[in-house]
Structure prediction request, 148 residues.
Amino acid sequence: MKTRPCIQCEKGTMVLDTRPIQAALGDLAQQVPDVHAWFCDHCGEVEFADEDGAARYSDAMDALTRQAKVLRGQEIRRIRRRLRLTQVQAGMLFGGGVNAFSRYERGQTEPHRSVEQLLHLLDRHPELLPEVQSQAESRMNGLNQEGG
Ligand SMILES: [Zn+2]
Prediction:
């Protein structure tokens, strides 16, 4: 079996082999079978030995990225429904406009991180929703008055 020193960790030995590798993104993971690559026995570094393995790994990462978007959209929908808001109401309340939540929930666009954090906070503390709503209302009233 072919070996060479690992330039990544400078301690391990890399072995040319065909093994399954794991593509991982956050909590999601997918196995890519039969990847021909150099594997370090010390630091776990993987260096693809051919285009095929690299391409299949890249495809697996793309699939995980799509899956993560879908899951994020489903999570946003679940929280919005739990708060008993329509997509339009949620868009008015959290900003982004009337179509924002439709886009978020289909995974077309991602909400700003602050919106997502607020949604997760309200998921744990739905009793805070009236406070958020009254703040949004007074902000809207303020805008209306400024508009004359
Ligand atoms: Zn190494």
Q: What stands out?
A: Residues 6, 8-9, 12, 40, 42-43, 45 surround zinc ion (CB under 6 Å). The chain has two domains: 1-71, 83-148. The chain has a mean pLDDT of 92.
